[in-house]
# Entry
Amino acid sequence: MTTAVRARYVEHVMGMPISLALRGRHTDDARAKDAWAEAMAVLREVDRVFSTYRDDSFVSRLGRGELSVHDCPPEVAEVLELGERARRESDGAFDVRRGGVLDPSGVVKGWAVERAAGPLRVLPETDVCLSAGGDLVCHVSGPDSPEWRIGIENPHDPTALLATVPVRNGAVATSGLAHRPGHVVDARTGRVPDLVASVTVVHADLTWADIDATAAFALGGESARWLATRPGRTGLVVWADGRTELVG
Amino acid sequence: MRRIVLWLLSTVSAVVLLFGYHTSTAGPAATAQAPVGASLATTSTTTTSGGTDPGTDSSSGSGASSSATPAASTLTGDVAQTRWGPVQVQITTDGSGTITDVEVLQYPSGNSVDDQINAYALPQLVQATLDAQSANIDMVSGATVTSEGYLQSLQSALDQATT
# Structure
């Protein structure tokens, strides 16, 4: 499909911008707008259940011990299971529980966007690129659709790009401190990684692209080596001294 | 990707075992990882210098001459369906059964059959001074942009660009 038509949408939820690009048959008609509304509804529901910024979310109440997992929607157990798997596979650098505090945000974001992309992916003859604060899902409708071209931001200069990656069906996630210093720590030490500036992971689905980007970032100096052991991932590690290292 | 390569090599080793070649690299673990259906095609041809054209059927009558070491042969495996997509390998052995060359004819990504998933494409480094517009970019991946920081971001510029 050749696709000159394109529409972009932006809304804010979970404290971050959600950007959508559509090209193809349904870009700004009622069907496209309905799918976009549905995607946003998915994210708002996820926020209601998982937000650690809302005292009344299921996860906040679970963290305070007011609820058990069985009292929560089944998605909570699913996310906690992902978090446990990520902890094991990262040797503990990634952990949704730190110092007695439950914070599954590192799992929820990619997982949620992957779900939110569902209603958009089924738009016939339409290509979709959905980004939540820099972590994104790409989908094309057919073998002739052009790839989505994704730019990877320079963590030392967020107004510049360091790399590009073409993606047709897949996901790209980046973890770093450029916009939110100190929000990722190595769960084993509680320290903010200082050897690595950002880690970008390209993978088939955003759930694991996002988890791995965060886990690799938390692993600091071991990030590139660890990422190379992960099946089906490619990536870019930008070190604190400005060097770049492609993985894959 | 490294794991895929290791896996491919172990598959090759296992395939070689099936045909009774001796190799020091194939262990039980390698055998266990061989996918169902990773059997070698029974057609093998004598090659001259391992320069078999990977794009053509190795059994086609290209008149490969016998100027090479007598028992050297090139074996082309069947296409194996893996969790990453189809894989096909070709090995070249010398007269003693030692593998002298391994060529991957078909990778899980980048082939025309299954280009629906190409999440495994490598990022390509670009000049650091490029901005999103001049790089012809659709979307930007970066460290988490908050709603507060969004207006200064490259993504914001892209979202406002009307096409």
Q: What stands out?
A: The mean pLDDT of chain B is 57. The two ends of chain B are 36 Å apart (CA to CA). Residues 10 and 122 of chain B are 23 Å apart (CA to CA).
